[in-house]
Automatic annotation (TrEMBL):
<keyword id="KW-0326">Glycosidase</keyword>
<dbReference type="GO" id="GO:0005975">
    <property type="term" value="P:carbohydrate metabolic process"/>
</dbReference>
<dbReference type="InterPro" id="IPR017853">
    <property type="entry name" value="GH"/>
</dbReference>
<feature type="signal peptide">
    <location>
        <begin position="1"/>
        <end position="21"/>
    </location>
</feature>
<dbReference type="Pfam" id="PF00128">
    <property type="entry name" value="Alpha-amylase"/>
</dbReference>
<comment type="similarity">
    <text>Belongs to the glycosyl hydrolase 13 family.</text>
</comment>
<keyword id="KW-0325">Glycoprotein</keyword>
<dbReference type="GO" id="GO:0004558">
    <property type="term" value="F:alpha-1,4-glucosidase activity"/>
</dbReference>
<dbReference type="InterPro" id="IPR006047">
    <property type="entry name" value="GH13_cat_dom"/>
</dbReference>
<keyword id="KW-0732">Signal</keyword>
<keyword id="KW-0378">Hydrolase</keyword>
<dbReference type="InterPro" id="IPR045857">
    <property type="entry name" value="O16G_dom_2"/>
</dbReference>
<protein>
    <recommendedName>
        <fullName>alpha-glucosidase</fullName>
        <ecNumber>3.2.1.20</ecNumber>
    </recommendedName>
</protein>
<feature type="domain" description="Glycosyl hydrolase family 13 catalytic">
    <location>
        <begin position="32"/>
        <end position="433"/>
    </location>
</feature>
Length: 579
């Protein structure tokens, strides 16, 4: 065990130490709001913008820097807002443009930045652009990816142009009776892919960005980045088939995992597009002044690609290329070595002058407390808030909300609806999208109405914001303490010195020279362990508990002996050295 520990011992000099922290977005604490489920003010069972406005002070009180909102634009709601029919309008169920402007004004007053979701890959099939394209309008004819398909030599029948498969299952090509051609949709049939090889599309999407920037937003989270470009048809006579993945875990040939997406994902042009958008927000900032506008990018892709989204050394890219390690590569059986390895890998690979970031949850994945185990709720939040760089929290994770079971009959997520009763649950994103639990009143205080678009969790009487705000000890109290702690110089600019002691124990320090030494102890395992922390850090004779998981034997403010520190099962603790 000891040999392992010594080998794993690494001191990481952070890019952050070279930055003079003056910008609002640096070391930011970002909160994702799923507006449909956050707060409903008009009793229709669906969240709205006035609900967001009402709760901005709550976010400020916790200490968040910015809120990024899942799409609020006009939409038929096939993919709950990720199918946009008008990129310049507010979805009527969510409110009006005046409501939006009030939200922005209130956010400015309170001091929370508002970041919108920008969905560049596709529109809704109800968008005027698509309707015009179907009808062959010369201005829109090539706005989407259209193709005649191919004729099967044996049967003489027309078939889709290639074997490309949608993320939501089945062929990514759909026949259109009016235009008599196939169109590409990498997600739902009702989400046709825009054609980024058409300069008019690129120009239009830049207009969309400028439109919302002019309304006062602080930036964008960019959706489904890897899918923007497909292989250039001009280089081939046909769209080529993608090779089979031979992935033995893939359920079947209708599933996206059946093929390797070499012609439909991560094309080199994608990076250039992100760099162009970065230039756009920087130019806007230069022209209009005020605080910097930021880009957050959503790309489930290779590690190398994620890092490339930061920039290529010449051009800048995303301020926050979402790091999905804790969603894709770390789970409830990962060891402390796995954690240490993933954390080190990201920090070591970052270009100079940028920040790391850690995303623990979002509206596309099961909830943190359900994925890692309820008993690890605080431990995971302690980790998120004490690592260097940006922390990204999905609404409800600060309370330890858990997944809500939704039956096949009640399932509404298009990704799950395309499966069957035996397999839908794995694919379903509904369990993490249920209404936010505000208090113990009916429907968890989410709505004054008597129904909600997805069911409210049965646990709302025990797990809700009001109860946790009033309780002396709660997930929310711990979270608030951590958010404040992150503003300390050692967390903002300090190096991280991390190691795994065995499969269960992860320890790291955060310290800026001349500032306090903090030591974080994470016990992933199910049994208590006693550790001599002075072997690894200069903790002296006593250390103080800053905060710790609810079930810890220690309490905040307690003085402990670092030579015999007891890391309780599933407990995370932040200690500070006492000189
Ligand atoms: C992104 C969104 C997801 C959506 C998909 C298609 O991955 O986060 O919710 O279904 O893109 O827009």
């Amino acid at each position: 065990m000891q040999t392992h520990a010594v080998v794993a011992f690494l001191v990481l000099a952070l890019g952050t130490t070279q930055i003079h922290s003056t910008e609002w977005w640096e070391n930011g604490n970002y909160y994702q709001i799923y507006p449909r489920s956050f707060r409903d003010t008009n009793g229709d069972g669906v969240g709205d913008l006035n609900g967001v406005t009402e709760k901005l002070q709550y976010l400020k009180d916790i200490g968040f820097t910015a809120a990024w909102l899942s799409p609020i634009f006009k939409s038929p709601m096939v993919d709950f807002g990720y199918d946009i029919s008008d990129f310049y309008q507010i979805h009527p169920e969510y409110g009006t443009m005046e409501d939006f402007e009030r939200m922005i004004a209130r956010a400015k007053e309170v001091g929370i930045k508002i970041i919108l979701d920008f969905v560049p890959n596709h529109s809704s099939d109800k968008s005027e652009w698509f309707i015009n394209s179907v009808n062959g309008d010369p201005d829109y004819k090539d706005f989407y990816i259209w193709h005649d398909g191919k004729i099967n030599e044996e049967t003489g029948e027309r078939e889709p142009p290639s074997n490309w498969i949608s993320e939501f299952r089945y062929s990514a090509w759909e026949w259109n009776e009016v235009r008599e051609q196939y169109y590409l949709h990498q997600f739902a049939v009702q989400q046709p892919d825009l054609n980024y090889r058409n300069p008019a599309v690129v120009e239009e999407m830049k207009r969309v960005l400028r439109f919302w920037l002019a309304k006062g937003v602080a930036g964008f989270r960019i959706d489904a980045v890897p899918y923007m470009f497909e292989v250039d048809l001009d280089r081939y006579n046909q769209y080529p088939d993608e090779p089979l993945s031979n992935d033995t875990t893939c359920p079947g040939s209708d599933d996206h995992c059946w093929t390797q997406h070499i012609y439909t994902q991560d094309l080199p042009e994608t990076f250039d597009m992100i760099y162009q958008w970065r230039e756009l927000v920087d130019d806007f900032h230069e022209e209009h002044g005020g605080d910097s506008r930021v880009l957050l990018t959503e790309a489930y892709t290779s590690f190398e690609n994620m890092i490339k989204f930061y920039g290529d050394g010449v051009r800048n890219g995303s301020h926050v290329p979402f790091n999905f390690d804790f969603l894709s590569n770390i789970n409830n059986v990962s060891t402390a070595h796995d954690y240490a390895e993933h954390i080190q890998k990201w920090i070591n690979a970052m270009p100079a002058g940028v920040y790391a970031n850690w995303v623990l949850g979002n509206h596309d994945n099961k909830r943190v407390a359900s994925r890692f185990g309820v008993q690890r709720t605080d431990l995971i939040n302690i980790l998120l808030q004490t690592l260097p760089g940006h922390a990204v929290t999905y609404n409800g994770e600060e309370l330890g909300m858990t997944d809500v079971y939704i039956s096949w009959e009640d399932t509404v997520d298009p990704n799950a609806c395309n499966a069957d009763p035996d397999t839908y649950y794995d694919r379903s994103r509904d369990p993490a999208r249920t209404p936010y639990q505000w208090d113990a009143s009916e429907n968890a205080g989410f709505t004054s109405g008597d129904q909600t678009w997805l069911p409210v969790s049965d646990e709302y009487k025990q797990i809700n914001a009001l109860q946790q705000m009033r309780a002396p000890q709660s997930h929310l109290q711990i979270f608030k303490k951590l958010v404040r702690l992150r503003k300390e110089p050692s967390f903002r600019q300090g190096a991280i010195n991390i190691q795994a002691l065995d499969d269960d124990i992860l320890i790291y320090s955060r310290q800026k020279t001349g500032s306090e030494l903090y030591v974080i102890v994470i016990n992933l395992g199910g049994s208590d362990k006693t550790i001599d922390l002075t072997k690894y850090y200069s903790l002296g004779g006593q250390a103080e508990v800053i905060t710790t998981s609810l079930q810890s034997k220690y309490i905040d403010g307690e003085l402990v002996d670092p030579k015999a520190f007891v890391a309780n099962a599933h407990v995370g603790t932040v200690l500070v050295a006492i000189n």
